[in-house]
Amino acid sequence: MQKRSVDVAVISDLHLGTYACRANEFLSYLRSIEPRLLILNGDIIDGWQFSKRYFPASHMAVIQEIFQLLSAGTRVIYITGNHDEMLRRYSDLQLGNFQLTDKAVIEINGKMTWIFHGDVFDHTTKGQTKLLGKLGSNSYAALLGFNRSINWLMKFFGKEKLSLSRQVMKQFNKKVVKIEDFETKIAALAIEKKYNCVICGHIHQPSKRIIETPKGSVTYLNSGDWIEHMTALEYYDNDWHIYTHPELEKTETKKYSSKPQPQVFTNEIAIYLHALYPQTAI
Prior knowledge:
This protein is of the alpha/beta class. 29% of the residues lie in helices and 27% in strands.
């Protein structure tokens, strides 16, 4: 299979180590691209639900494929999230082409992009509500398992698949996380800091849009997740694009263009790394 050359690929919310993880689909995606820079934007390994009893071969194969990319020359930046917050004590670790950090700023052709997971802007991951968040995460995982059983029956009877878990997540984001507030808060701070783009994950909602405030505008992007949406962000042809895995591409409103892409990298990618700790929220 011929690989697609992309300048930057950003993925988040893979949740390795859980039953909900779509490791096989993500593995096929990794094997289809040749990125100059791969950014793992949080919740890659799920420390909240991690169990020694469950880490199948497909999950390990994902880690091995990332190491293959490293050995082939791809630079990999792992940005910590709330589900893999146990790694934050090792922030600013650098081993060859691999770096572990809490946020990154990259400059592509003169435009500055601020990248972090986004949990520091979500009140449900702090203080006493953090326990409720963990309980909610476990309930969501159970719902996903139930949803897959229902869809097996729907497929058996020739019916269309249902996504009860997606609807639950949608209502949770709307009423609890409050996506609009989440996005505008991040955008306002990015504008204040003079960034051209800001990229998050965390809320499992792929997005690309311009957000304006009285102080200016910024391109807000969210890489979505590899639980239900199976999406990633890719930078090529001097712009950001949302990639959707072929299995879900027909049902998503925002699609990845399947046209062959030129094998040309952008002129320059500069990377600046900084720590982003939960208590600072900046």
